[in-house]
Amino acid sequence: MSDVFFHPVSGFDLPRFAGIPTFMRLPHVPPGHERFGDVQVGLIGVPWDSGTTNRPGPRHGPRQLRDASTMIRAEHPVSGVRPFETVNCADLGDVGPNPADIQDSMQRITAFYREVVAAGIVPLTGGGDHLSSLPILRAVAASGPVGMVHFDSHTDLYHSYFDGTMYTHGTPFRRAVEEELLDPARVVQIGIRGTMYDHEDMDFAQSVGIRIITIDEFHARGVADVMAEAREIVGKGDTYVSYDIDFVDPTFAPGTGTPEVGGPNSYQALQVVRELAGVKIVGADLVEVSPPFDPSGGTAFLGVSIMFEMLCQMAAQVQGG
After folding, report:
1. CATH assignment of the domain containing 13
2. Overall number of domains in the chain
3. Which of 25, 30, 32, 207 is the most buried (most CB within 10 A)?
4. Which residues contact 171 (CB under 8 A, 6 or more apart)?
């Protein structure tokens, strides 16, 4: 059982539209807080989108995700898991980026996550654009390469943009493989689709052994079959989960910078995470929610609902040791 200090504020005690919003109404326990060392799963915001190459806005994602997350309640509707009573969860706050300097921002992000990992906390991140995953992985995978389950409509495996720009939201996992943060034989990318510049990213994936499951294959096989293969690929080793909200069809998640039609619906968006049971998750992120393109707030609410699904998997894992 978790410490009651780490339980979220109930909507029965304070209306959900009142109070200062934290992720899922959890206590704010930043590094240096006297209870920081007692946290087991930490929710973190990375308000940064300097890797964006088209429509900006994910730097505002964590704030909107926090606001939407006040609607998250205590119990999973299907599994019955009550994560806040299972493990000590807290909102660790935001990493403060440098919006004018990509390299400095990545160093700041890595330093923050190194402190989190050193404390034995499993990080769950709300981004931010997808370049955010690279500096997070530099901390999470510092002791050796990890596997990855990656939900996205894009591979993010390109070598560079604009004749040599190496760090964009289209390149993080190419860099992560090169830096030996990811074990490509234990990486699976699910939902890939959309028009293409060329086959460079696909060719790279094939050359290093990354498994790509396109959206056509996803729809043909179904969630359960695809996710069974994903679990087999990552096996029992340490695994990172990276979830770009543009994995979901823009009918259900319009608030993102690079939408691609033909994706999963909102139920399937939750279902794929439920099928991660048994995966050893050492960190996870939900990225690319862009509030300027999400006037209804529906994308953000789907995003935090996905984060809650991730949290339930992480809580079950922590509880099981």
Report:
1. 3.40.800.10
2. 1
3. 25
4. 51, 131, 156, 157, 158, 159, 160, 161
What gap in Å lies between CA 30 and CA 307, rounded to an integer? 19
Confidence (pLDDT) at 318 = 76
Q: Pairing mode, if any, of strands 280-287 and 238-244?
A: parallel
Number of residues that this document lists for the chain: 321
* pLDDT band, very low/low/confident/very high, at 1 (cuts 50, 70, 90): confident
Decide: 64 and 300 in contact? Cβ < 8 Å: yes
CB contact burial 257-293 (16+ within 10 A = b; e otherwise): bbbbeebbebebbbbbbebbeebebbbbbbbbbbbeb
d(CA 213, CA 191): 6
How many helices, marked H, and strands, marked E, lie in the chain? 10, 8
Domain of residue 75, residue span: 4-320
Predicted local distance difference test score (pLDDT) of residue 49? 97
* Type of residue numbered 311: L
